[in-house]
Amino acid sequence: MAQLWRQVRLAEVCNFQNGFAFKNSDYVEEGNGAFEIFRMGNISRGGGFNPDGKKAFVSKEQGKRLERFLLNEGDILMCMTDMKSSMALLGHTAWMPITGCYLLNQRVGRITVSKPDLLERRFLYYHSNSPDYVDWLRAHANSGVQVNLSTDAILNSPVPLPPLPIQRRIAGILSAYDELIENSQRRIKILESMASALYREWFIHFRFPGHESVPRVPSPLGEIPQGWVVKKLGEVADTFRGRSYRSVDLADEGGLPFLNLKCLDREGGFRRSGLKRYIGEFKDVHVAKKDDIVMAVTDMTQERRIVARAALVPTLDNDFGVFSMDLVRIEPKSAMPKTFLYSLLRYSSFADEVKQHANGANVLHLAPERITDYRFMAPPTDSMIQFADFAAPIVEEIDMLANRIVNLRRTRDLLMRRLLSGQIDVEAIAS
């Protein structure tokens, strides 16, 4: 049991390395053998590797000069900095799945096992993302608007040392859940690519069923198929602002799901981990249900990676949720299928064009009229309905897979805490 497991400082069984302080002037375009920089954004919330974070590259020549910062498969990368207001990443780690492609950036630390006869590196990875360990690190971080972990705090952090066979069994059990999660994530990416490709094929490249017999005609947006018209988004959809809220309206549990800016993935899509709980007052207009379209009209990133991005509300743990004033709900009018409208907002040039109208010094704000003023080439209703018939099952399967991921993560995290604390007989599970 856990109380019999020896506990050591991380420094006794691991090596630790800080990243290199790259400058903006070091960055080059992707390609020509350039090395990608592993940054904090490559660590997922709750732990894990995120290959889709904001990318930066340095030249092949500089990469070779900084060979000591080159990452290898099995390296454990820890986020050492976070904003006190979020604390979403601080202390969490990612497992590097490949060798030789990434260079370590500052404020990310590399942990490697120095005593493999005592410590299984996969076991260490799961321990490093366990709630108890992350809480220990955060309790030993400095305080301020930006919270930082020192190298000393990390080196002095506690690591349990159950017998190696038990470590391997624990790592194997938890890895099985991660493999199922990764498989579902890959399927979601494939399905989203399918939906995007189908939309672009029909409504951007005009290769919809029967296009061969439809001539092109001039329009204010260039040549379009005959029967299509140029419209403003406001002609086919209405926008509704979300609820202005106070901190006292939020709770750790109970209440209703609260959709907020953190629920929007960069580049679009819904992030369930951003959901909060709401216990305040609201009106019917502030309600969002499954398959409703929400869009960010506020952005904390100066790169404009969230503002004007759309997401579909997923299956919630309640019949409806409340959405914040940082979002708008976009509701199609009767003639336009919701799946088509969502695809227009996600897969066309909509976001890239409309986000340029957001303004503000520290926080970007987008006026809803900038959304409704957007002009697009509207196909006939029959074409939109035909597209929706193809795309709706794809959207539904994405939601199903995302729900599966939530359940797998919940089960894995519950097991992680109990396995790492010795509350569960590992040999009984493995047999």
Total number of helices? 10
Strand order of the largest sheet: 17-19-18-24-20
Q: Please give the share of residues in helix.
A: 25-40%
Instruction: Give the overall shape.
Output: globular
First and last CA, distance: 18 Å
Largest sheet: 5 strands, mixed
How many whole angstroms does the radius of gyration measure? 24 Å
Binned strand content? 15-25%
Number of strands: 27
Average pLDDT across residues?
92
Low-confidence spans: none
SS-based class = alpha+beta
Description:
With 431 residues, the chain is of the alpha+beta class. 31% of the residues lie in helices and 21% in strands. It contains ten helices and 27 strands. It has helices at residues 60-65, 121-128, 131-139, 151-155, 164-203, 338-347, 350-354, 368-372, 381-420, 426-430; strands at residues 6-9, 14-18, 27-28, 35-38, 57-58, 76-79, 81-83, 93-95, 102-104, 108-113, 146-148, 158-161, 216-217, 224-225, 229-232, 237-241, 250-251, 256-259, 276-278, 287-288, 293-296, 298-299, 310-312, 321-323, 327-332, 364-365, 375-378. A five-stranded mixed sheet has the order 17-19-18-24-20, with no helix packed on it. Strands 2-10-6-8 form a four-stranded antiparallel sheet. Strands 3-5-4-9 form a four-stranded mixed sheet. β13 and β14 (224-225) form a beta hairpin. α5 packs across α6 and α5 (164-203) packs antiparallel against α9 (381-420). The radius of gyration is 24 Å and the shape is globular.
